[in-house]
Design a protein that fits this description.
alpha+beta, Cytochrome p450, 5-stranded mixed β-sheet, 16 helices, 10 strands, disordered N terminus
Length: 437
């Protein structure tokens, strides 16, 4: 499909290139219009169906014929280790919520959901605010120029905030949290995009990620053992108590659950804060609108604004893997048993059939039934915590660094090329005005 077809279709876009990673939305617009359910070869070589229209995406996310279990992959021999999170198979961390179906999914989700009740998340809000202010204090304290400050908001702010928050929630002791930060950093740096010459670029191999995952797995096994002797009020202690009270939670399941809560709980929030800050800096009218509302004590725009940022350039570009368990038709395409299906949340959330002016950022938007955190039984369990962290981070940045601005041309920014997540590698900023906490 390199030239216009008989029905005058424009040339198909190139997917998964560096240019695509920087701005995938024109390509997704083409797919929505011309090939809304599209089979393509991924950079790994695995072939999968991409679902790009909102209606099809919502249907697929809730369709019980699409299993989360990689064991249903029809190319399991060829695709072994190429679907899911790098290293999770070798580290025996497969039995988590993103890889299982009911009834096991129902059982494990019920156990973990107790940690993410509105009451518990609200009780965590002061700690999130404390961490946020500490990180900004550190950024300000390192400055040598009294007139112009600078920082990389990804590595100095958006990355450490959710790492320390989820470690606190899991019950990782403070003296061990820097190890988690190092392992998580390796996950963020793994490659996934291809340059136009077809070669992989941009960081260490999947094997490096796998080694970090194995280190994390070993640590979690040790931590679970230690906590059995001294249970606390943290999430890992709660998983141990559930197991001890007949909920049939194995140690492997407990370790896998802790791992996926850490993995899913930090990277999505890193990207929410990073992408959200970048979107505000590139849309000064909307940024000023939010600052004015917050200065007047009005937080309503912050709440709707987070939902709009999730829709406009959310942290999760593609939903995690699904596999057809029976022949099915989706968006007019016949999908065979075992074929992978990837729902493109970023494309669905800019579908003009669902959203008015979808490529425009409007923090006061009301039609915000986005799919940024999924839909159905696999809807993101940690979404309330991520929203809390995102709102706290953005509101505090705008209040304490009110003249925050990009320090580079937007075209110089680089995006991580992973398949599932969408986020910036760095976000260099400048500021000259600082307010106290």
């Amino acid at each position: 499909m390199n030239d216009k077809t008989a029905n005058d279709r424009p040339p198909a876009p190139t997917l998964f290139s560096w240019e695509f990673a920087a701005d995938p939305y024109p390509a997704y617009a083409w797919l929505r219009e011309h090939a809304p359910v599209h089979k393509t070869a991924l950079p790994s070589g695995v072939e999968a169906w991409l679902v790009t229209r909102y209606a099809d995406a919502r249907q697929a996310l809730a369709d019980q014929r699409l299993s989360k279990n990689p064991g249903h992959h029809s190319e399991s021999a060829h695709g072994k280790g190429k679907v899911g999170i790098p290293g999770e198979r070798g580290a025996n961390l497969m039995t988590h919520l993103l890889n299982i179906d009911p009834p096991d999914h129902t059982r494990l989700r019920r156990l973990v959901s107790k940690a993410f009740t509105p009451r518990r998340v609200a009780a965590f809000a002061p700690r999130v605010q404390e961490l946020t202010d500490q990180l900004i204090d550190t950024i300000v304290a390192k400055q040598h120029d009294p007139v112009r400050g600078e920082a990389d908001l990804i590595h100095e702010f958006a990355f450490p905030l959710p790492i320390y928050a989820i470690c606190d929630m899991l019950g990782v002791p403070p003296e061990d949290q820097d190890d988690f930060r190092e392992w998580a950093g390796m996950m963020l740096r793994h490659p996934g995009a291809q340059s136009p010459d077809g070669r992989r670029h941009g960081g260490g191999p999947r094997g490096g990620v796998g080694r970090s995952v194995k280190k994390m797995r070993g640590y979690l096994a040790e931590l679970i053992h230690r906590k059995r002797e001294d249970l606390g009020d943290d999430l890992i202690s709660g998983l141990i108590r559930a197991s001890d009270h007949g909920e049939h939670l194995t140690e492997n399941e407990a370790a896998a659950m802790a791992f996926i809560l850490l993995f899913a709980g930090f990277e999505t929030t890193v990207n929410l804060i990073g992408n959200g800050t970048y979107a505000l800096l590139c849309n000064p009218v909307q940024r000023e609108r939010l600052q004015t509302a917050l200065a007047g004590g009005d937080t309503a725009l912050l709440a709707t604004g987070i939902e709009e940022l999730l829709r406009y350039d959310g942290p999760v570009e593609l939903a995690t893997w699904r596999f057809a368990t029976e022949p099915m038709t989706l968006g007019g395409q016949r999908i065979a048993v075992g074929e992978p299906v990837l729902v493109v949340l970023a494309a669905a959330d800019r579908d003009p059939e669902k959203f008015t002016d979808p490529d425009t950022l409007d923090l006061g938007r009301r039609d915000t039934q986005h799919l940024g955190y999924g839909h159905g039984i696999h809807y993101c369990l940690g979404a309330p915590l991520a929203r809390l962290e995102g709102q706290t981070a953005l509101a505090t940045l705008l209040r304490r660094l009110p003249d925050l601005r990009l320090a580079v041309d937007p075209g110089d920014l680089r995006w991580r090329g992973g398949l599932i997540m969408r986020g910036l590698r760095t976000l260099p900023v400048e500021f000259s005005t600082v307010t106290v906490a």
